[in-house]
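Notebook p. 47: complex prediction with adenosine-5'-diphosphate.
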Amino acid sequence: MTAAPAARPAAGTGAGPGPAAAAPRRPLPGRDALLGVAGGAAFLLVWEAVPRTPAVSADHLPPASEVLATLAARSATGAFWSAVGATVSAWALGLAIAFAAAVALGLAIGSVPALRAATASTVEFLRPIPSVALIPLAILMYGSDLRSTLLLVVYASFWQIYIQVLYGVADLDPVAEQTARAYGLGRWARLRHLVWPTALPYLLTGVRLGAAVALILTITAQLTIGTPGLGQEISVAQSSGAAPLVYALIVATGLLGVAVNTGVRAVERRLLRWHSSVRGEAAV
Amino acid sequence: MLDVDGLRKTYSGRGREVEAVRDLTFRLGEGELACLVGPSGCGKTTLLKCVSGLMRPTAGTVALDGRPVTGPPPDMAVVFQEYGRSLFPWLTVRGNVELPLKEKRLPKARRRELVDGALEAVGLAHAGARHPWELSGGMQQRVAIARAIAYEPRVLLMDEPFAAVDAQTRADLEDLIRGLWKRFSMTVLFVTHDIDEAVYLGQRVIVLSASPTVVQDDVRVDLPDERDQLTTRSAPRFAELRAQVYREIQTAKNGGGPSGADGAGTGGAEADGAADPDDPEADKGTGGADGPERTPTTTGGPR
Ligand SMILES: Nc1ncnc2c1ncn2[C@@H]1O[C@H](COP(=O)(O)OP(=O)(O)O)[C@@H](O)[C@H]1O
Ligand SMILES: [Mg+2]
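Predicted complex, structure tokens below:
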């Protein structure tokens, strides 16, 4: 609390070319990290202790040590990693398809107000449909093929990204637009040099949300449809009654989620160094 | 070389019609530096957008070298009042200045030459690698000016470019504009609501009336070509010209203009020409919103 103001003037003079340094953004990053570690440790302790009390049976909730040991043992097997690989590749492929479609459609429809207005009601109808409601449809169409997973993943993450791209395109500053036109930038050049950078912060938010949803749907599809991957492993472990393994695999999916989120945030910070949410200095 | 003839612009939208500019006719000669002065909300920005081909006039024509302007002409550059929004924050200062040149498909070496020259001319040679948001307001406006210069325009349009900077910076920028105008021999149309600034900068001051907007007067500024913030501004002739322009604006406001002027109390501050940068947005919407659409005084402004 006392050292906080010291970080500010250094950023204010703005000498360095890389203003996105982590230091000035949080008052005391060391302290936060410390609290995070302490909180995590406390959580593990509670998890370790609770199954040893009569309140919860260790059959339903194995202690943390056992789960982590199972995870460690499991992660030494090739089967585990091929399951991780299958999950990650289905996730990545689905997200990539959703991304490409959402960006192309979002830029095209967002740039034409009439088109945007005409499609708004349809979007508002389609968007809230929970992807899991499409599971029977996916099975009907593709069986337990990878494509049924992709259908769910793409449907879920597409809307997250698409809506953000629409917001981003709508955020175009009319003064910037007029500047671009006055200086001879044609339609394509404006899209590339103006609309795209304007929409980028929104797009990346969409990707972050879409990536999380895509992971959820990947696991869901593998669990329910039985396409290969971590989800399917969980359902196999469950039917063989191996509670510690079920927990271990759940923890693995959680770690995957954390990795995805961290990765997207890192990309965001890199690409948006110029953006006020990232540059983090008090500009005059 | 730049002809504005019978220009009229009526905004229509949401069932309302706003007559921003009624009837403007004037002409700029090659290499001239003309200032256009008028109260906030009288349609200066509207006029500039029509002249730069960004907006279609409702009636009348704009012609550059005899050719009608239907879109942004390649040899015309614009400096906007909102410099902060006119510069792209994701590009560096260099990137901002260079982008239009890339679109012109100039070779790399030539681009570098132009960007260096322009940044040098506005005194920002050292700041090329920085981002606009790392600079002060005055510096940002100089980047916008550098972008315009590098574009090698024959006509430079400026829309109240210094309304939002402090008085000292403003004086520096005024001198910068006169310097650049001489050095690059462009035709400059400089829009302002500040009478002092108009008289100090221009060879000529075109006075617009309050809404409904017509050309109220066209004053030749016969001050010596070498101008200086101290001596020019304290010269008796400067005071006379300033008073003349001031009177014209007053006349326009007090019934000198056509009927229907609703005389909203906007004029005082800017007509006084003090260096206070009042917010031009503040007066929006006070103009003849429900103005008498059927009384088009087709007589042009007194020329
Ligand atoms: N896009 C628009 N739609 C409707 N009215 C507008 C629009 N832009 C400007 N106006 C109106 O036109 C008039 C002139 O505006 P403007 O050209 O910005 O004046 P100035 O630049 O002289 O301050 C004002 O009354 C303003 O409210
Ligand atoms: Mg204006």
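Notes: The radius of gyration of chain B is 19 Å. Residues B 11, 13, 18, 20, 38, 40-46, 280, 284-285, 287 surround adenosine-5'-diphosphate (ligand 1) (CB under 6 Å).
Next step: compare against the earlier run before touching the bench.
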